[in-house]
Design brief:
- By secondary structure, the chain is of the alpha/beta class.
- The protein is built from 7 helices and 5 strands; from the N terminus they run H-E-H-E-H-H-E-H-E-H-E-H.
- A 5-stranded parallel beta sheet has the order 2-1-3-4-5, sandwiched between helices.
- Helix 4 crosses helix 5.
- The chain is globular and about 40 Å long.
- The chain starts with a helix and ends in a 25-residue tail after the last helix.
Length: about 200
């Protein structure tokens, strides 16, 4: 392979645009919209898929007592063709049950056709590097070193190239780190008391 072809192949690899599911708390809608506009629509890092403000899971999902059914329905109805989940973290995201459900569905694997999990990353919307308020299920799949764990946690990306590398790492993890997944925690039945605000939103 020539040097030119090698460089061209590397450039094409960097320009892959993954379909990404965005998990977030609607209280952070303005910051989420900015992130999706900047990196999804303007810079073309990913193609976003997310529940719109005001949209919610259907009653059969909300009222079901069968976690396996809930997880599969979330994947079938809401994830579309996405392969990576980005959890966008505000200060209250950790307490939201739907975020927990979306993370659980992202980590689900097996079933019909040997379904792969989603790659999973969390990004702090407030541009800090603190992991203090990560959702509990995410924390079960991460550690402080960002090594030897399934999920990865990051501060706000500096540029499109950086974010694209994070997404590609998460995409690769679906086959290279799936053995590290811990999805045993029971689903959150209700929103929890927020550790920041001290109230249940």
């Amino acid at each position: 392979m020539s040097i030119y072809n090698g460089i061209l192949g590397g450039m094409q690899q960097l320009q892959i645009r993954r379909n990404v599911f965005i998990s977030y708390y609607h209280g952070d809608q303005v910051a989420v919209n900015e992130f999706v506009r900047t990196f999804g629509r303007e810079q073309g890092v990913f193609t976003p898929n997310m529940l719109a403000e005001g949209q919610r899971f259907t009653d059969d999902i909300i009222n079901s007592s069968n976690p396996a059914y809930v997880m599969q329905q979330i994947r079938n109805r809401y994830f579309g063709h996405t392969t990576v989940t980005i959890v966008l973290l505000g200060s209250c995201t950790h307490s939201r049950r739907y975020v927990d459900w979306e993370i659980k569905a992202s980590l689900q694997r097996g079933g019909v056709g040997g379904q792969l999990p989603h790659g999973l990353i969390a990004i702090n919307l407030c541009r800090q590097n603190s992991a203090k308020f990560l959702p509990p299920r995410f924390r079960d799949n991460w550690n402080d070193s960002n090594q030897n764990c399934y999920a990865r946690f990051y501060r706000y990306p500096n540029n499109a190239t950086e974010l694209r590398e994070w997404i590609e790492d998460a995409f690769s993890a679906r086959t290279t780190r799936a053995n590290l997944i811990n999805n045993s925690m029971s689903m959150m039945k209700y929103n929890r008391t927020c550790s920041v605000c001290g109230v249940t939103h």
